[in-house]
Write a structure and sequence with these properties.
Elements: H1 2-16, H2 19-22, H3 25-36, H4 45-48, H5 56-69, H6 73-92, H7 98-109, H8 121-136, H9 141-171, H10 175-188, H11 198-210, H12 214-227, H13 232-244, H14 250-257, E1 268-276, E2 283-291, E3 294-302, E4 313-315, E5 322-329, H15 330-369, H16 376-388, E6 402-410, E7 413-417, E8 425-429, E9 434-442, E10 445-452
Parallel strand pairs: 1-9
Antiparallel strand pairs: 1-6, 2-3, 4-5, 5-6, 7-8, 9-10
Length: 453
């Protein structure tokens, strides 16, 4: 009895230093998101102080994204590099090590939040894409290309990993799993995976164009269109490049999407990237039940209906009307990531319920042997089991909910652009060059950045 209680107490004390073990992660990030929704500067000390901790990879991602949103691309690079090193450490670490054994043991007694955070594949893909944008807005096209190529390689490797895992998923299928998978699939809409991201492929295609590599650009635009087939700006890119490259697909594309838009001599190009909102937070489902005459709870993370997706964004201040159209629903990627992890999460849940039940049964048995039915140790054990059961709600919460794109050829000059007919940004258009405009909307607050490439 003393051994079991001592083990629980030591885990509790160590868990206090594990930020998300007993304090759900969304509540920790909420003040930072509120600051981003206003003009106040978010204070990063609380999360940057924990980059070396249990959730360090996640805090590095959040810090990098917050610095990026507020225009500090240099600081963002550093935080993202820290997150990349953490991912590499996970890759290099042996499957069985003392650190993993310890983490998994605490996960069996506490909850999944005590397991060091290793983000789902789509977060790692987005990490490299956002690092590429840091390089782009610092004027380094080659550095950006390295990052988006890594992003695309990760999409391919995640797809192989997912296909390999499907055999084990199918062998675990039962009514409860099938029902939750079906519900999450409905919430994700037409997006069917977490690892195929048209946004990343589009940025890669854009970079190839800027570097004078139209064949490579065409390939990546086509991959993006396979994932996001209804984006009119992407369709125009494919028609234009198919014509320029004398591709056999040109006649088919022209029939489906119309004639390509041809710039006038000395026109410049403006490319818009618009990001809207924040990805939804994971919610918790907790189910109480009795096992071996002891109270147990099972808590799982889930997503609920997050309402209507953002509408296409009208862009004001141009000679002719233009709207940014969706290229990726990041919220759907997050939902699919949870769906793909569900079978493994349920296995961990079952093992944890069994472990806690056995610990409670042994404490109860010891109490009975001492002729003390109401021994405080047995009561404390049951309270510990209920309180310690917390769903793992960790995820990269400063990602946008949706990404949109738009393009337009314009005469040389200055243009006052805005998404709200209010404060915006004056952008310069130069002959035969590309002006990239990045608009980030965080719950009604708009930030604008531009660079000529």
């Amino acid at each position: 009895m003393r051994i079991a209680l001592g083990f629980c107490l030591s885990l509790c004390l160590s868990g206090c230093a594990m930020n998300s073990v007993f304090i759900n992660y969304p509540s920790q990030i909420k003040p930072l998101k509120q600051a981003l929704a206003s003009q106040s500067a978010p204070k990063l000390d609380d999360i940057t102080d924990n980059i070396d901790g249990n959730d360090g990879l996640l805090y590095a991602q959040e810090a990098g994204r917050i610095a990026q949103i507020t225009g500090d691309f240099s600081a963002s690079k550093g935080y993202y590099q820290s997150a990349m090193r953490a991912y590499q450490a996970f890759d290099e670490r042996a499957k069985i090590s003392l650190s993993n054994v310890g983490a998994n043991a605490s996960g069996l007694v506490l909850n999944d939040n005590s397991i060091p955070y290793r983000g789902p594949g789509f977060e790692r893909i987005m990490l490299h894409q956002y690092q590429a944008l840091n390089y782009l807005f610092s004027g380094d096209l080659q550095g950006a290309l390295v990052e988006v190529r890594r992003s695309n390689e990760l999409q391919a490797s995640e797809q192989r990993r997912y296909e390999k895992s499907q055999k084990s998923v199918q062998s675990m299928a039962n009514g409860a799993i099938d029902n939750e998978v079906s519900r999450l699939s409905s919430a994700a809409g037409t997006v069917t995976s977490s690892f195929l991201n048209a946004y990343s492929y589009y940025i890669t295609g854009l970079l190839h164009e800027l570097l004078g590599e139209p064949n490579d650009a065409f390939i990546d635009y086509r991959k993006a269109a396979q994932i996001s087939p209804n984006n009119p700006n992407l369709q125009q890119d494919l028609v234009r490049l198919a014509k320029d490259l004398a591709m056999e697909e040109f006649e088919d594309y022209r029939r489906r999407w119309g004639e390509p838009k041809i710039p006038q001599a000395n026109d410049g190009q403006v490319v818009f990237i618009v990001e809207r909102g924040f990805v939804p937070e994971k919610q918790s489902i907790t189910i109480p039940f009795r096992l071996h005459d002891n109270w147990q709870t099972a808590s799982m993370a889930t997503y609920t209906n997050n309402g209507l997706a953002p509408m296409p964004s009208p862009i004001y201040g141009l000679p002719t009307p233009l709207s940014a159209a969706p290229i990726a629903n990041i919220d759907a990627l997050a939902i699919n990531a949870l769906k793909e992890d569900l079978p493994a999460a349920l296995v961990r849940q079952a093992l944890r319920v069994y472990t806690k039940s056995e610990m409670a049964r042994r404490v109860r048995s010891d109490s009975k042997s001492q002729q003390n039915e109401l021994d405080p140790a047995a009561i404390l054990m049951q309270i510990f089991n209920v309180v310690s059961e917390q769903a793992d709600r960790r995820s990269w919460l400063t990602l946008p909910r949706q990404a949109q794109i738009a393009k337009q050829y314009l005469p040389v000059g200055s243009y006052p652009l805005s998404l709200t007919q209010a404060n915006g940004i004056n952008v310069q258009v130069e002959a035969n060059r590309t002006t990239l405009v990045w608009v980030i909307e965080t719950l009604g607050n708009y930030r604008y950045y531009s660079v000529i490439l």
